Amino acid sequence: MSRAADAARKRHEELVAEIRAHDYRYYVLDDPAISDREYDALYRELVELEKEYPELATPDSPTRRVGMSPRGALRTVRHVAPMMSLDNTYDETEVRDFARRVVAGLPAGARPRYCVEPKLDGASVEILYREGRLHEASTRGDGEHGEDVTENLRTIRSLPLTIDYRGPLTLRAEVVIFRRDLDRINAERVALGEPPFANPRNAAAGSLRMLDPRIVARRPLRAVVWQVVEGPEIAPSHSAALDRLAELGLPTHRKHVVCDDVDAVLEAVRALDADRKSYPYETDGAVIKVDDFSQQAILGATAKFPRWAIAYKFGAERATTRVVRIEVGVGRTGTLTPVAVLEPVRLAGTVVSRASLHNEQIVGQLDVRVGDRVTIEKAGEIIPQVVAVDVSARPAAAEPFRMPEHCPTCGTRVSRSDGEVAVWCPNPHCPDKVAGAIFHFSRRFAMDIDRLGEALIEQLVKKNLVRDVADLYELRAEQLVELERMGKKSAENVIESIAKSRERTLDRLLTGLGIEHVGPVASRQLAEAVHSLEELLAIPESEITERVSAIAGFGPKMVESVRAFLTDPESRKLLERLSKLGVSRPQPRHTVAASGPLAGMSFCVTGVLSRKREDVHASIRAAGGEVHDKVKSGTTFLVAGEKVGSTKLAAAKKAGTRVIDEATLERLIQGEPLPEATPQA
Ligand code: IVH
């Protein structure tokens, strides 16, 4: 090995160790030691180093957390041991009964100790480490079999890809989303016209089972280990095992308390209930476990539950209040959403005055009426929900709620479709929809028109100055000056901030247009595939489906949504106007995904391959690689198909570019290490 390569390897080792340590502090201990910027600098250095020395980018490098490209479906795997559930109780006397049964089940004179710990409210998984590496992870499924979510779990940065323990270790953990992170992703979802997650559990469970690990990588998932099912020889008791796992760098909850008797257990449970609001994740109870593994083995299990553990459930926080009125809002997509306006009431630390009633069906099931006394609950302690109606206290005149037959904003007759609960305003010019669409268009992650606030948009729409997003670019400062609270200077600033947004790349424009099922990531992929707005418009109608389905990760729903958008005469007209107005810049062809197994590597593809060359390019980009049209100095790999021309091979030799075949490329995309180089002829 050359001296430079040797130094690179050393530096690589240092960086990997450093990044792992910071990941651990940040994601497991929740106690970062360096700023995000400093972290990014380390990470970038690692990416650069691996770019120069691709052989250093082994599958357990921190740059390789996002591996495979999307799958069609998740594989089913069998659990090492069945994932059982727990016997539940809400009652302290039942905890005493449990302790009596435990003592009765153990040899005479045994004085079992108990471990009390939080019951995390997330999605449970089984995680296998083999030979010190994260080997497989699966969802609970039916208890016997779950779905293989290994690639998704690999994206969770609190979970080490390697540990310093070689024996087989099978763990059970909860995948959770911290409360503070949920607020952030929900704000993003609402902005995209998607329904917010009702609670962190739904968000975690939904994210965990997604087919595209690249999207999972963007979700702030965390894993918290709560059990060892294989490898108990690491410690004699559950509490000691949790401590040992923490020493190995695994994320455990670190909230367990060992108790000598049932009184201490009940005290620990009460303390946990008082303390749990300060935990970053949701908990719905305490789990009480016999601590000693050999005593657990003696006690065994019934058909459903282990006899050595029980869950003590805490009730959700509730409050009662009165429904003042039921409002119906119209969103950007036109969906009518009923909202209960409440007499303000304190609940779990905040004052609640509105609760979403979601849709007509839910209002109907609850039979919520104006004037009703209702019980509200913070589902997952986030979004207040109406959970019960006190019918006995109902005013005599209260009428059942009916969804309006006409849009509350524009008066158009609403639409409904069979089999769907949604009711929506079909009028594309409905002021609420137009204002919602324009606001969405102007958001930071879309066209970023910072001077265009909600109040201004509302006025623009009301005064009929703007009917769609293209109209924004035809506004003149003189028109704005006439509006409320708008001086000459601020009018000019608004116009300037709109004009500046012409320079956004195509992906931002597509995001701003809010095509159903097409968020920022998909917009970027679509933009990269078509390059410019003009090229997008030039795709013949008959080829749209084929072109769009070729994009990695685009499922039938997304393809159909893009096709419907591009063939709709109204939206075509809008795109054509935007194009004439000079809105959006072409998407750079060579944008590199921030991470992925191919991060830092570049590829030139040549010859006849098993897939269309464009598709191969898309997979390379999706995995974080760069695509070069020609081999140049710095091109890492030439992917040679059949009938490859000798000029390309000669160019590769000259540039020092390694030649690989299609199968090797696929392996690299899967995150596998590069096979030993064979000398090139
Ligand atoms: S121990 C043999 N401990 O709650 C079952 N479970 O209702 C042992 N859960 O299946 C379960 N936090 O999905 C245990 N600290 C914890 C937990 C926990 C959450 C989940 C888990 C379990 C379910 C039981």
Explained architecture:
The longest helix has 26 residues, at 3-28. Helix 1 runs antiparallel to helix 2 (36-52), helix 12 packs antiparallel against helix 17 (506-513) and helix 17 (506-513) packs across helix 18 (520-530). This protein starts with a helix and ends in a 12-residue tail after the last helix. Helix content is 37%, strand content 19%. The protein is of the alpha+beta class and 681 residues long. It is flat. The chain has a 5-stranded mixed β-sheet. A 5-stranded antiparallel β-sheet has the order 14-13-12-15-16, covered by helices on one side. It has a 4-stranded antiparallel β-sheet with strand order 5-4-7-8. It contains 25 helices and 22 strands. Bound molecules: 2-(butylsulfanyl)adenosine.
Distinctive features:
alpha+beta; D-amino Acid Aminotransferase, Chain A, domain 1; Helix Hairpins; flat; 681 residues; 6 domains; five-stranded mixed beta sheet; 37% helix; binds 2-(butylsulfanyl)adenosine; OB fold (Dihydrolipoamide Acetyltransferase, E2P); five-stranded antiparallel beta sheet
C-alpha termini separation: 22 Å
Count of alpha/pi helices:
25
Oligomer: single chain
**How confident is the prediction overall: mean pLDDT?**
88
Shape: flat
CATH superfamily of the largest domain: DNA ligase/mRNA capping enzyme
Would you tell me the structural class of the helices and strands? alpha+beta
The helix content is: 25-40%
Bound molecules: 2-(butylsulfanyl)adenosine
Which CATH top level class of the largest domain fits? Answer: Alpha Beta
Rg computed from alpha carbons, rounded to a whole number of angstroms: 29 Å
CATH architecture assignment name of the largest domain: 2-Layer Sandwich
